[in-house]
Amino acid sequence: MGRAAYVLCFLAGPCVVGASSAAAETQAPDYYIEALFAVSTAETLTEFCPDVGFDPGAANAQAEAVLNQLAADGITGDAILALTGIEAGVAALQSAFTQRYALTSPTEDAICAAAQAEMSADSAIGRVLVEEGQ
User: Fold this and answer.
1) What are residue 20's DSSP bridge partners?
2) Above 80 in pLDDT, residue 72?
3) SS3 (DSSP) at 51
4) Distances in Å between the alpha carbon of 16 and those of 19, 71, 75?
5) CA–CA dist 59, 67 (Å, integer)
6) What is the CA radius of gyration of the chain?
7) 71: how many CB neighbours lie within 10 A of its CB?
8) Beta-carbon contacts of residue 93 (< 8 Å; ≥ 6 apart)
9) Rounded distance, CA 72 to CA 94, Å?
10) What is the pLDDT of residues 89-125, one digit of tens each?
11) How far is residue 34's CA from residue 108's CA, in Å, rounded to a whole number?
12) Which of 11-25, 27-41, 44-58, 102-116 has the lowest mean pLDDT?
């Protein structure tokens, strides 16, 4: 489980890593997969682009909105950890992102350009990025 999933789980309340198999398996909602992808991608962009930083407050606000939607959908606590399809869903979004920005052999400039484009588009990724003092 990635850091973003732990953040969402932590905010949801008591969660046990490796939730019980007794929990019914449920396909993860698209909005949950998209949120995990956005936060993990933003974190990755900040690791390779010195021009952008990660805004934990904005990430927490996004996580709270996702958790509220999960709760409205009846998915709480350990049931979040039992969601399926997350890895495949995130991988598909990562592939599309990599192709969109031609990041198969990325340079720092290309990564920074992708980060700037996401910020300009005010996407879920861009909303958790901040410009660093240049």
Assistant:
1) none
2) yes
3) coil
4) 5, 17, 15
5) 12
6) 15
7) 14
8) 33, 34, 37, 41
9) 27
10) 999 999 999 999 999 899 999 999 999 999 999 999 9
11) 24
12) 11-25
User: Using CA atoms, how far apart are residues 104 and 4, in angstroms rounded to an integer?
Assistant: 23
CA dihedral of 43, 44, 47, 53, whole degrees rounded to 10: -40
User: How large is the greatest C-alpha to C-alpha distance in the chain, in angstroms?
Assistant: 51
17: its two tokens: 């890593």
Which residue in this structure is represented by tokens 């709760």? 71
CA dihedral (104, 121, 40, 110) positive or negative = positive
| Sign of the alpha-carbon dihedral angle for 91, 97, 98, 99 | positive
Task: Report residue 87 CA to chain centroid gap.
Answer: 12
**Cβ-Cβ contacts under 8 Å for 66 (sequence gap 6 or more):** 8, 31, 32, 35
Strand locations in 1-134 (E): 26-27, 52-54, 83-84, 129-131
